[in-house]
Amino acid sequence: MNRAVALLEPAPAGCGPALPAAGAPRPLRRAIYETVRAGGRVSRAEVAKALDVSPASVTALTSDLIAAGHLLETEGPAPAPARRGRPPVALAVRPGAARVAGLRMSDESWSAVALDMGGAVLGEARRAAPPGRMDADTVEEAAAALLADLGRAARVGPEGFASVGVGLPGMVDHPGGAVAWSPLLLRRDLPLADLLGRRLGAPVLLENDAQAATLAELWFGAGRFAADFAVVTIENGLGMGLVAGNRLTRGGGGLGLELGHTKVQLDGALCRCGRRGCLEAYVADYALAREAETALVGGSRAGAVGADLLDRLHAEAKAGHPAAASIFRRAGRYMALALSNVALLFDPAKIILSGERMRYDQLHSDEVIEEMRRLLIDSGRPPPPVEIHAWGGSVWARGAAALALQHVTEAATG
Ligand SMILES: [Zn+2]
């Protein structure tokens, strides 16, 4: 393996995109706040230089932000030993100005994380997912229970969260606050942001879960300093997010990019969206599990299920079980097809593969990457590098929490 396998590190200082979003002018007050947040501890002079504005205008607006309780003055980084004197005064985000929550819903477990305004994790919570497809009442009930757990873990009282971001699989209309379709939900076009907002007592922002994972990269991970990159996620489904010009791409309808439901085979395998031949019907957990049952237990339903079944399939494939190995080999070839299509369509500077299923290394082996390269047009330039982030835990929820941080920031800075 010549590609780095990295875990998402907590940002040493600051959070949020370090580069301004292209084509999205922002009020100077917000630009100042976001520059300070991205840098962690930043002097007024550095802010003025970064934004190419006069120090006087920065001084006036920072006084205003300090008075309103959004920024504070702190000690800057210590001067070099050769230089004497007191450390310079720096600005920092006031972490306790508000607290936000991020929830991630999936069909196995739900996770939640509480952040302060500086992006520090205050607490985490996790619950098993409600079984089967849910009606609106079940979603509200489960979300309220998880948020109550989170409040206890983070020592945040009832209604103490200024905003809640929610990531879930499916076609999520971010600006409209509705879920057009999700494998978790019984109903189509559910106005989930309003329903949850009333129940949880805070504004709720929705996002597709792969988009939330992409936001986690952009706010807290390898994407903070990157302008253009794609994130491909494998969990129970196959998702994708794209950052172009330092901002998350959402389609015209706010639905984002549904890589998992692009068609790779006419009249192919049945997908959980109800159509045939979708990419995820060949790569996602349920696709592998469908074949694993046949390969390992002769078609009977006895034995392991879900993640246990896949772990067993993975171990058998590693040990040379021919049918088990062929299942991963085929899934890996479809993965190569997916990655080459992403590279051809979007020309990203890099592709980040993320999600818990990255521990099945056959899905991103050197052979898979080599096959991806063979499927690309030989332009004479190197194909985009592929990085693996085998995240677990609360990272997807942190991406959802970034939505809430953004929402609170916009409200606070005009
Ligand atoms: Zn589909």
Automatic annotation (TrEMBL):
GO molecular function, one term: kinase activity
InterPro entries: ATPase_NBD, ROK, WH-like_DNA-bd_sf, WH_DNA-bd_sf
Pfam name, any one: ROK
Top-level taxon of origin: Bacteria
Alphabetically ordered keywords of this record: Kinase, Transferase
Family statement: Belongs to the ROK (NagC/XylR) family.
PANTHER family: BIFUNCTIONAL UDP-N-ACETYLGLUCOSAMINE 2-EPIMERASE_N-ACETYLMANNOSAMINE KINASE, ROK (REPRESSOR, ORF, KINASE) FAMILY
Name the UniProt record assigns to this protein: Putative NBD/HSP70 family sugar kinase
Organism classification: Bacteria, Pseudomonadati, Pseudomonadota, Alphaproteobacteria, Rhodobacterales
